[in-house]
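[job 0412] stage=complex_fold ligand=BES status=START
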Amino acid sequence: MRPSHLEDFYSFLRFPSISTDDACVEKLSDCAHWLVTKLNGIGLTAQLVQTPRHPVVWAKNKHRAGRQTVLIYGHYDVQPADPLDLWDSPPFEPVLKDGYVFARGATDNKGQILSHILGVQETIEEDGELPVNLHLVVEGEEEIGSPNLVDFLQQNREALKCDVVAVSDTGMIGRGVPTLSYGLRGVAALNLKVTGPKLDLHSGVFGGAVANPITALAQLLATLHNREGRVAIPGFYDQVMPLQDWEREAWKKLPITVDDAILKETGAKKLFGEAGYSTLERIWARPTAELNGIGGGYQGPGSKTVIPSYAFAKITFRLVPNQKADEIIPLAKEHLQKNSPAGVTLDFEGGHSGAWYLTDPHAVYGQVAQRALRKAFDREPALIREGGSIPITTDFRNVLGVETLLLGLALPNCRAHSPNENFPLENLEAGIRLNKAILRELAT
Ligand code: BES
Ligand code: MN
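[job 0412] stage=complex_fold status=DONE, emitting structure tokens
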């Protein structure tokens, strides 16, 4: 690893670019400026495009007619680092241990997008120029649902015209196993508030007389699933596309032992989920309803005899082809309303939502991606779907009319969004090779 590459990686990681945290606005701007300087420094023309929240970094080389145009996309924003006490080293002071760099954003997405940038840099150094026309778009709002990137795409639709998009923001099924992801789940968020009495009450004086909103919330949330792990909202599965035969067969043959790996990585005692599907099928191709947060009532030390005025839950659904957020959210609200216990009222707040993505890994650009992966890793690529979401991929299709190649470099134990997130230098190197290979493959 070239020392300057490592320096770049560390500098990039030192920005606490937490997009959801208003206290970090300036840090995101600093990080975006750092990228602009870096990209100009390697011979691209980079600019900062302001949005209502965090800026987009947009760089290009000199475009020439008759060449393929590729848009490489990534994000410089990161998830919050909490809980801080579970980190072995401070999240924004990168450290190298046994070949792995530990820091928030190391995998998601700074290590991955930097490997593209360094691949572009090395190609320009070696050949004097790139073999393709390039757009590099690095946004600062991916972790909050990319609220302003669609506008950016629409406003610059003509200028951003391209043949294909390449993104490294997904996973590899194992160390050294090149992986092409051809599907992602979507996401739809719903916040629920259950209100009972107008103020917190003495539970001895009023208990038995009025409904307890926490009890009501617990009863309501329990109606979301049956005991076999299926979502119990009527109509929830109506639009779900069945798994294709070829993928069920292919996934069975993948060179990984998922169940053991997940038990080890998560510390869960037992795997659990919708009956009738393998673990990979449940994560990659089946929808879920997840409770992400719950609150209400007394949270302090000891006990307090109180009936709280309200309780709340934060819910997200992971959606699969062909479910739509604007159909699922109303179904969920209707179901909750119908099951609402007496004596409380429900209030809903819609959160962000983003579409799933599914493309054909055997189509022309999928084959280009597979060739590049084979070249960079010297091994046959695994073709998979994934459970996470990158909603902008659907906008690339709808606004720019192009497909997205998901060439991820995240390892199963990378701890993205968790304490001790890490990225191996081996994958930074592999990402550089992959970037060079994809540029070359596109040019031939
Ligand atoms: N890199 C992830 C998406 C991802 C994770 C894809 C794992 C495949 C496997 C991305 O940065 C992310 O976390 N996205 C959010 C999107 C949401 C905020 C709209 C997600 O999936 O929760
Ligand atoms: Mn993420």
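The mean pLDDT is 97.
[job 0412] exit 0
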